[in-house]
Design goal:
Length: 92
Amino acid sequence: MKEKIKHPVRVLTLAAIAGAFIGLTGCATTGQLEELQTKVNAVAADAAAAKAEAAAASAKANDAVRIANEANNRSMETESKIDRMFKKAMHK
């Protein structure tokens, strides 16, 4: 009877040891977590820099659109003036 009890106890002991080993080897060390945090921080910094660059590019694009609209308005005004002058010259 003792032989039957020892075998399951031995199996349970080995299972507990194996489980502890798997659990401990599966966990990340503090160094690994710090390394991962450093990488996450670097990615976050890169993302913030990219966002700032995108905002600057957007501002420049908005300025370019504004300047183009001003140039278009001046061109239309000039065209209108030339057209009026041409019509005046034709009526004389």
